[in-house]
Automatic annotation (TrEMBL):
Lineage of source species: Bacteria, Bacillati, Bacillota, Clostridia, Eubacteriales
The name this protein goes by in its record: Fusion HD-GYP domain and HD-hydrolase domain
Molecular-function annotations in GO: hydrolase activity
Keyword Transcription: no
Domain annotation HD-GYP: ranges: 226-413
Keywords: Hydrolase
Top-level taxon of the source organism: Bacteria
Native species: Thermobrachium celere DSM 8682
NCBIfam families for the chain: HDIG (TIGR00277)
Protein backbone atom coordinates (compact mmCIF):
# COMPACT_ATOMS: atom_id res chain seq x y z
CA UNK A 1 0.00 0.00 0.00
CA UNK A 2 1.45 3.34 -1.07
CA UNK A 3 1.88 6.03 1.57
CA UNK A 4 1.98 9.79 1.16
CA UNK A 5 2.72 12.71 3.51
CA UNK A 6 -0.33 14.16 5.29
CA UNK A 7 1.20 17.63 5.67
CA UNK A 8 1.89 17.87 1.94
CA UNK A 9 -1.57 16.64 0.97
CA UNK A 10 -3.28 19.06 3.35
CA UNK A 11 -1.10 21.99 2.25
CA UNK A 12 -2.00 21.46 -1.39
CA UNK A 13 -5.71 20.77 -0.97
CA UNK A 14 -6.51 23.17 1.88
CA UNK A 15 -4.75 26.09 0.25
CA UNK A 16 -6.78 25.47 -2.91
CA UNK A 17 -9.65 27.13 -1.05
CA UNK A 18 -7.64 30.35 -1.33
CA UNK A 19 -8.30 30.31 -5.08
CA UNK A 20 -11.89 31.27 -4.39
CA UNK A 21 -13.11 34.81 -4.90
CA UNK A 22 -14.24 35.99 -1.48
CA UNK A 23 -15.24 39.11 0.45
CA UNK A 24 -16.09 40.16 4.00
CA UNK A 25 -19.40 41.69 5.03
CA UNK A 26 -19.82 43.03 8.55
CA UNK A 27 -22.78 41.81 10.61
CA UNK A 28 -24.43 43.29 13.68
CA UNK A 29 -26.10 40.22 15.20
CA UNK A 30 -23.08 39.30 17.24
CA UNK A 31 -20.07 41.21 18.51
CA UNK A 32 -18.12 41.85 15.31
CA UNK A 33 -15.08 43.91 16.22
CA UNK A 34 -14.13 44.24 12.54
CA UNK A 35 -17.33 46.12 11.67
CA UNK A 36 -15.59 49.48 11.98
CA UNK A 37 -13.12 48.52 9.27
CA UNK A 38 -13.66 48.82 5.52
CA UNK A 39 -13.23 45.15 4.67
CA UNK A 40 -15.67 44.86 1.77
CA UNK A 41 -12.84 44.84 -0.77
CA UNK A 42 -10.70 42.30 1.03
CA UNK A 43 -9.74 39.36 -1.17
CA UNK A 44 -8.85 36.01 0.34
CA UNK A 45 -6.63 34.83 -2.49
CA UNK A 46 -3.94 33.80 0.00
CA UNK A 47 -5.98 33.76 3.18
CA UNK A 48 -5.29 30.25 4.51
CA UNK A 49 -1.67 30.39 3.41
CA UNK A 50 -0.98 33.72 5.12
CA UNK A 51 -2.98 32.91 8.25
CA UNK A 52 -1.14 29.59 8.58
CA UNK A 53 2.21 31.37 8.37
CA UNK A 54 1.22 33.80 11.13
CA UNK A 55 -0.15 31.02 13.35
CA UNK A 56 2.99 28.94 12.95
CA UNK A 57 5.29 31.88 13.69
CA UNK A 58 3.36 32.57 16.90
CA UNK A 59 3.32 28.87 17.82
CA UNK A 60 7.07 28.49 17.27
CA UNK A 61 7.65 31.18 19.87
CA UNK A 62 5.56 29.26 22.40
CA UNK A 63 6.45 25.60 21.96
CA UNK A 64 8.82 23.80 19.60
CA UNK A 65 7.14 20.42 20.12
CA UNK A 66 6.50 18.79 16.73
CA UNK A 67 3.10 17.44 17.72
CA UNK A 68 1.93 20.90 18.84
CA UNK A 69 3.22 22.59 15.69
CA UNK A 70 1.62 19.91 13.52
CA UNK A 71 -1.77 20.57 15.16
CA UNK A 72 -1.35 24.32 14.62
CA UNK A 73 -0.45 23.77 10.98
CA UNK A 74 -3.25 21.33 10.16
CA UNK A 75 -5.98 23.20 12.03
CA UNK A 76 -5.06 26.61 10.61
CA UNK A 77 -4.66 25.31 7.06
CA UNK A 78 -8.08 23.65 7.37
CA UNK A 79 -9.83 26.31 9.45
CA UNK A 80 -12.11 27.41 6.61
CA UNK A 81 -12.97 23.90 5.39
CA UNK A 82 -16.60 24.46 6.40
CA UNK A 83 -17.22 27.19 3.85
CA UNK A 84 -19.70 25.01 1.93
CA UNK A 85 -20.86 26.54 -1.37
CA UNK A 86 -21.09 30.20 -0.31
CA UNK A 87 -17.35 30.58 -0.21
CA UNK A 88 -17.59 34.38 -0.27
CA UNK A 89 -19.58 34.31 2.98
CA UNK A 90 -17.06 32.36 5.06
CA UNK A 91 -16.38 35.48 7.14
CA UNK A 92 -19.81 37.06 6.81
CA UNK A 93 -22.95 37.30 8.98
CA UNK A 94 -23.68 35.43 12.18
CA UNK A 95 -25.76 32.61 10.70
CA UNK A 96 -23.27 31.83 7.95
CA UNK A 97 -20.25 31.95 10.25
CA UNK A 98 -22.06 29.69 12.72
CA UNK A 99 -22.85 27.21 9.94
CA UNK A 100 -19.28 27.48 8.68
CA UNK A 101 -17.88 26.65 12.13
CA UNK A 102 -20.21 23.71 12.76
CA UNK A 103 -19.71 22.27 9.29
CA UNK A 104 -15.96 22.64 9.70
CA UNK A 105 -16.16 20.53 12.86
CA UNK A 106 -18.23 17.91 11.05
CA UNK A 107 -15.94 17.67 8.04
CA UNK A 108 -12.80 17.40 10.16
CA UNK A 109 -14.35 14.42 11.95
CA UNK A 110 -14.50 12.65 8.57
CA UNK A 111 -10.78 13.07 7.99
CA UNK A 112 -8.06 10.60 9.06
CA UNK A 113 -6.50 13.12 11.43
CA UNK A 114 -6.48 13.91 15.17
CA UNK A 115 -10.14 14.46 16.15
CA UNK A 116 -9.06 17.24 18.54
CA UNK A 117 -8.72 19.43 15.46
CA UNK A 118 -12.49 19.39 14.99
CA UNK A 119 -12.97 21.19 18.31
CA UNK A 120 -10.19 23.66 17.53
CA UNK A 121 -11.81 24.56 14.21
CA UNK A 122 -15.32 24.76 15.65
CA UNK A 123 -14.20 27.46 18.10
CA UNK A 124 -11.80 29.49 15.94
CA UNK A 125 -14.24 32.44 15.83
CA UNK A 126 -14.52 32.79 19.62
CA UNK A 127 -13.68 36.12 21.26
CA UNK A 128 -11.51 36.05 24.38
CA UNK A 129 -14.10 38.04 26.40
CA UNK A 130 -16.90 35.55 25.70
CA UNK A 131 -18.78 37.50 23.04
CA UNK A 132 -18.13 35.05 20.20
CA UNK A 133 -20.36 32.52 18.48
CA UNK A 134 -20.51 29.95 21.27
CA UNK A 135 -19.85 32.33 24.19
CA UNK A 136 -16.73 30.52 25.36
CA UNK A 137 -14.47 32.79 27.38
CA UNK A 138 -10.76 33.00 28.12
CA UNK A 139 -9.09 29.71 28.97
CA UNK A 140 -12.24 27.78 28.02
CA UNK A 141 -11.44 28.49 24.37
CA UNK A 142 -8.99 25.87 23.01
CA UNK A 143 -5.50 27.37 22.96
CA UNK A 144 -4.90 26.73 19.26
CA UNK A 145 -8.33 28.22 18.46
CA UNK A 146 -7.09 31.43 20.11
CA UNK A 147 -3.97 31.37 17.94
CA UNK A 148 -6.05 30.90 14.79
CA UNK A 149 -8.38 33.75 15.84
CA UNK A 150 -5.45 36.15 15.93
CA UNK A 151 -3.86 34.85 12.73
CA UNK A 152 -7.22 34.87 10.93
CA UNK A 153 -7.99 38.49 11.75
CA UNK A 154 -4.41 39.55 11.06
CA UNK A 155 -4.88 38.26 7.51
CA UNK A 156 -8.21 40.10 7.17
CA UNK A 157 -6.52 43.32 8.30
CA UNK A 158 -3.65 42.86 5.87
CA UNK A 159 -4.07 44.50 2.45
CA UNK A 160 -1.90 42.72 -0.08
CA UNK A 161 -2.43 45.54 -2.59
CA UNK A 162 -0.33 47.88 -0.45
CA UNK A 163 3.34 47.75 0.63
CA UNK A 164 3.65 46.07 4.01
CA UNK A 165 5.58 48.96 5.59
CA UNK A 166 2.58 51.27 5.09
CA UNK A 167 0.29 49.13 7.23
CA UNK A 168 2.44 47.60 9.96
CA UNK A 169 1.61 50.24 12.53
CA UNK A 170 -2.12 50.23 11.78
CA UNK A 171 -2.42 46.43 12.06
CA UNK A 172 -0.36 46.22 15.26
CA UNK A 173 -2.35 49.02 16.88
CA UNK A 174 -5.64 47.36 16.01
CA UNK A 175 -4.59 43.97 17.37
CA UNK A 176 -3.23 45.51 20.59
CA UNK A 177 -6.39 47.58 21.05
CA UNK A 178 -8.41 44.36 21.02
CA UNK A 179 -6.44 42.23 23.46
CA UNK A 180 -8.70 40.97 26.24
CA UNK A 181 -11.71 41.46 23.94
CA UNK A 182 -11.04 39.42 20.79
CA UNK A 183 -7.55 38.18 21.59
CA UNK A 184 -5.75 36.36 24.36
CA UNK A 185 -3.46 39.09 25.79
CA UNK A 186 -0.59 36.64 26.21
CA UNK A 187 -0.79 35.73 22.51
CA UNK A 188 -0.83 39.41 21.58
CA UNK A 189 2.47 39.79 23.40
CA UNK A 190 3.91 36.86 21.46
CA UNK A 191 2.61 38.42 18.24
CA UNK A 192 4.29 41.72 19.13
CA UNK A 193 7.60 39.89 19.41
CA UNK A 194 7.09 37.99 16.15
CA UNK A 195 6.12 41.03 14.11
CA UNK A 196 9.06 43.09 15.40
CA UNK A 197 11.34 41.23 12.96
CA UNK A 198 11.39 42.76 9.47
CA UNK A 199 11.60 39.33 7.84
CA UNK A 200 8.13 38.50 9.21
CA UNK A 201 6.53 41.33 7.23
CA UNK A 202 8.60 40.64 4.14
CA UNK A 203 7.50 37.01 4.24
CA UNK A 204 3.88 38.13 4.61
CA UNK A 205 4.28 40.39 1.58
CA UNK A 206 5.89 37.73 -0.61
CA UNK A 207 4.14 34.55 0.50
CA UNK A 208 1.73 34.70 -2.45
CA UNK A 209 4.63 34.55 -4.92
CA UNK A 210 7.09 32.34 -3.08
CA UNK A 211 5.69 29.04 -1.80
CA UNK A 212 9.01 28.16 -0.13
CA UNK A 213 8.32 30.78 2.57
CA UNK A 214 5.59 28.65 4.11
CA UNK A 215 7.22 25.37 3.16
CA UNK A 216 10.22 26.26 5.33
CA UNK A 217 8.19 26.61 8.52
CA UNK A 218 5.73 23.74 8.08
CA UNK A 219 6.69 21.19 10.77
CA UNK A 220 9.44 19.02 9.33
CA UNK A 221 7.90 15.71 10.27
CA UNK A 222 6.36 13.16 7.94
CA UNK A 223 2.92 11.82 8.80
CA UNK A 224 2.37 8.89 6.44
CA UNK A 225 -1.14 8.30 5.10
CA UNK A 226 -2.40 5.48 2.91
CA UNK A 227 -4.41 5.77 -0.28
CA UNK A 228 -7.46 4.76 1.78
CA UNK A 229 -6.78 7.81 3.98
CA UNK A 230 -6.30 10.02 0.94
CA UNK A 231 -9.64 8.86 -0.44
CA UNK A 232 -11.33 9.99 2.81
CA UNK A 233 -9.66 13.38 2.45
CA UNK A 234 -10.64 13.55 -1.22
CA UNK A 235 -14.27 12.79 -0.34
CA UNK A 236 -14.36 15.80 1.98
CA UNK A 237 -12.88 18.08 -0.67
CA UNK A 238 -15.27 16.64 -3.27
CA UNK A 239 -18.07 17.76 -0.96
CA UNK A 240 -16.60 21.27 -0.88
CA UNK A 241 -16.09 21.34 -4.64
CA UNK A 242 -19.54 20.03 -5.52
CA UNK A 243 -21.34 22.29 -3.05
CA UNK A 244 -19.71 25.41 -4.43
CA UNK A 245 -22.44 25.35 -7.09
CA UNK A 246 -25.98 24.00 -6.67
CA UNK A 247 -25.76 22.80 -10.28
CA UNK A 248 -23.11 20.18 -9.48
CA UNK A 249 -23.70 19.16 -5.88
CA UNK A 250 -23.11 15.43 -6.49
CA UNK A 251 -20.99 15.50 -9.65
CA UNK A 252 -17.62 14.42 -8.26
CA UNK A 253 -19.01 11.73 -5.98
CA UNK A 254 -21.12 10.32 -8.81
CA UNK A 255 -18.10 10.34 -11.11
CA UNK A 256 -16.05 8.42 -8.54
CA UNK A 257 -18.76 5.74 -8.40
CA UNK A 258 -18.76 5.36 -12.20
CA UNK A 259 -14.98 5.25 -12.33
CA UNK A 260 -14.84 2.57 -9.64
CA UNK A 261 -17.34 0.51 -11.63
CA UNK A 262 -15.09 0.74 -14.71
CA UNK A 263 -11.98 -0.15 -12.70
CA UNK A 264 -13.67 -3.23 -11.29
CA UNK A 265 -14.77 -4.24 -14.80
CA UNK A 266 -11.16 -3.94 -15.99
CA UNK A 267 -9.85 -5.90 -13.01
CA UNK A 268 -7.61 -3.11 -11.70
CA UNK A 269 -5.96 -3.81 -8.35
CA UNK A 270 -6.97 -1.96 -5.18
CA UNK A 271 -4.23 0.68 -5.41
CA UNK A 272 -4.97 1.65 -8.99
CA UNK A 273 -8.72 1.69 -8.34
CA UNK A 274 -8.21 3.95 -5.31
CA UNK A 275 -6.06 6.31 -7.39
CA UNK A 276 -8.74 6.51 -10.07
CA UNK A 277 -11.41 7.20 -7.44
CA UNK A 278 -9.26 9.91 -5.86
CA UNK A 279 -8.65 11.47 -9.28
CA UNK A 280 -12.40 11.50 -9.92
CA UNK A 281 -13.17 13.05 -6.53
CA UNK A 282 -10.60 15.82 -7.07
CA UNK A 283 -10.88 16.33 -10.85
CA UNK A 284 -12.81 19.59 -10.44
CA UNK A 285 -10.86 21.04 -7.50
CA UNK A 286 -9.72 23.79 -9.86
CA UNK A 287 -13.34 25.00 -9.96
CA UNK A 288 -12.69 26.62 -6.60
CA UNK A 289 -10.98 29.29 -8.72
CA UNK A 290 -14.14 29.96 -10.77
CA UNK A 291 -16.58 32.65 -9.53
CA UNK A 292 -20.06 31.43 -8.63
CA UNK A 293 -21.50 33.98 -11.05
CA UNK A 294 -20.14 31.75 -13.81
CA UNK A 295 -20.68 28.33 -12.18
CA UNK A 296 -24.31 29.13 -11.37
CA UNK A 297 -25.20 30.94 -14.60
CA UNK A 298 -28.43 29.44 -15.95
CA UNK A 299 -27.72 30.05 -19.59
CA UNK A 300 -25.01 30.09 -22.21
CA UNK A 301 -21.66 31.45 -21.08
CA UNK A 302 -20.08 34.34 -22.94
CA UNK A 303 -16.75 33.78 -24.69
CA UNK A 304 -14.92 35.42 -21.77
CA UNK A 305 -16.85 33.40 -19.19
CA UNK A 306 -16.12 30.20 -21.06
CA UNK A 307 -12.42 31.03 -21.10
CA UNK A 308 -12.51 31.47 -17.33
CA UNK A 309 -14.45 28.22 -16.91
CA UNK A 310 -11.94 26.32 -19.05
CA UNK A 311 -9.13 27.37 -16.72
CA UNK A 312 -10.35 25.08 -13.95
CA UNK A 313 -8.44 22.07 -15.30
CA UNK A 314 -5.24 24.11 -15.30
CA UNK A 315 -5.73 24.85 -11.61
CA UNK A 316 -6.59 21.23 -10.88
CA UNK A 317 -3.18 20.26 -12.24
CA UNK A 318 -1.47 23.13 -10.41
CA UNK A 319 -2.94 22.04 -7.07
CA UNK A 320 -2.47 18.29 -7.35
CA UNK A 321 1.00 18.43 -8.89
CA UNK A 322 2.38 19.78 -5.61
CA UNK A 323 1.84 16.39 -3.94
CA UNK A 324 4.68 13.88 -4.27
CA UNK A 325 3.34 10.50 -5.40
CA UNK A 326 0.28 12.03 -7.06
CA UNK A 327 1.70 12.00 -10.59
CA UNK A 328 -0.79 9.52 -12.06
CA UNK A 329 -3.70 10.93 -10.05
CA UNK A 330 -2.83 14.42 -11.29
CA UNK A 331 -2.83 13.36 -14.94
CA UNK A 332 -6.06 11.39 -14.71
CA UNK A 333 -7.80 14.24 -12.87
CA UNK A 334 -6.51 17.20 -14.87
CA UNK A 335 -6.85 15.70 -18.36
CA UNK A 336 -10.60 15.21 -18.31
CA UNK A 337 -11.22 17.95 -20.90
CA UNK A 338 -8.37 17.00 -23.23
CA UNK A 339 -9.31 15.44 -26.60
CA UNK A 340 -7.62 12.86 -28.81
CA UNK A 341 -7.58 15.33 -31.72
CA UNK A 342 -5.61 17.90 -29.72
CA UNK A 343 -8.54 20.33 -29.48
CA UNK A 344 -9.14 19.93 -25.77
CA UNK A 345 -7.89 22.10 -22.91
CA UNK A 346 -5.90 23.41 -21.15
CA UNK A 347 -2.81 21.93 -22.82
CA UNK A 348 -4.16 20.67 -26.14
CA UNK A 349 -2.78 17.17 -25.55
CA UNK A 350 -3.11 14.62 -28.34
CA UNK A 351 -3.88 10.89 -28.46
CA UNK A 352 -0.28 9.84 -27.82
CA UNK A 353 -0.22 11.91 -24.62
CA UNK A 354 -3.47 10.60 -23.14
CA UNK A 355 -3.48 7.32 -21.23
CA UNK A 356 -6.40 4.91 -21.25
CA UNK A 357 -7.22 6.02 -17.71
CA UNK A 358 -7.40 9.68 -18.76
CA UNK A 359 -9.65 8.71 -21.67
CA UNK A 360 -11.94 6.72 -19.38
CA UNK A 361 -12.11 9.63 -16.91
CA UNK A 362 -13.12 12.01 -19.69
CA UNK A 363 -15.92 9.76 -20.94
CA UNK A 364 -17.25 9.05 -17.45
CA UNK A 365 -17.21 12.80 -16.72
CA UNK A 366 -19.30 13.53 -19.82
CA UNK A 367 -21.66 10.65 -19.05
CA UNK A 368 -22.25 11.89 -15.50
CA UNK A 369 -22.87 15.45 -16.70
CA UNK A 370 -25.40 14.28 -19.29
CA UNK A 371 -27.32 11.83 -17.09
CA UNK A 372 -27.40 13.72 -13.78
CA UNK A 373 -30.40 15.83 -12.87
CA UNK A 374 -29.69 19.54 -12.69
CA UNK A 375 -31.88 22.32 -11.25
CA UNK A 376 -32.53 23.58 -14.79
CA UNK A 377 -33.14 20.24 -16.56
CA UNK A 378 -33.78 16.54 -16.14
CA UNK A 379 -30.88 14.18 -16.76
CA UNK A 380 -30.81 12.19 -20.01
CA UNK A 381 -31.42 8.47 -20.12
CA UNK A 382 -28.42 6.21 -20.65
CA UNK A 383 -28.98 5.53 -24.34
CA UNK A 384 -29.34 9.20 -25.28
CA UNK A 385 -26.16 10.01 -23.34
CA UNK A 386 -24.27 7.18 -25.07
CA UNK A 387 -25.49 8.43 -28.46
CA UNK A 388 -24.04 11.89 -27.78
CA UNK A 389 -20.74 10.39 -26.64
CA UNK A 390 -20.69 8.17 -29.74
CA UNK A 391 -20.87 11.30 -31.89
CA UNK A 392 -17.81 12.65 -30.09
CA UNK A 393 -16.04 9.34 -30.70
CA UNK A 394 -16.94 9.52 -34.40
CA UNK A 395 -15.47 13.04 -34.71
CA UNK A 396 -12.14 11.93 -33.21
CA UNK A 397 -12.51 13.67 -29.85
CA UNK A 398 -12.95 10.61 -27.64
CA UNK A 399 -11.50 7.10 -27.63
CA UNK A 400 -13.59 4.26 -29.09
CA UNK A 401 -11.90 1.61 -26.93
CA UNK A 402 -12.44 3.60 -23.74
CA UNK A 403 -16.05 4.29 -24.72
CA UNK A 404 -16.79 0.61 -25.28
CA UNK A 405 -15.24 -0.21 -21.89
CA UNK A 406 -17.33 2.42 -20.15
CA UNK A 407 -20.51 1.29 -21.90
CA UNK A 408 -19.95 -2.31 -20.87
CA UNK A 409 -19.05 -1.42 -17.29
CA UNK A 410 -21.94 0.98 -16.75
CA UNK A 411 -24.54 -1.19 -18.50
CA UNK A 412 -24.90 -3.12 -15.24
CA UNK A 413 -25.98 -0.01 -13.31
Amino acid sequence: MERLDLHQVVASLAFSVDLAETSVIADSEFKDYTADLNLSKHKFLNHARRATYVALKIAQNINSNDSFLSKVFLSTALHDIGIKKDIDSAHSNFDIILEHSKLGEELILRLPIDKELSTIIKYHHENFNGTGLFKLKGEDIPFISRIIRLADIFEILYDETKPNFTQRERICEWINEHKNTIFDPDLVEVFNKVQSIDAFWLDIENIAHNTSILDKIIPDIKIPVTLDDIKKIAEVFAYIIDHKSHFTYTHSTNLAKYVKKVCNYLGYDKNKTLKMEIAALLHDIGKLSIPNSILDKNGKLTADEMQIMRSHTYYTRLILSKIDGFEEITDWAANHHEKLNGKGYPFGLNAEELSLESRIMSICDIYEALTADRPYRKGMNRNDAFNIIQTMVDTGELCMRAFNIVKQALSEI
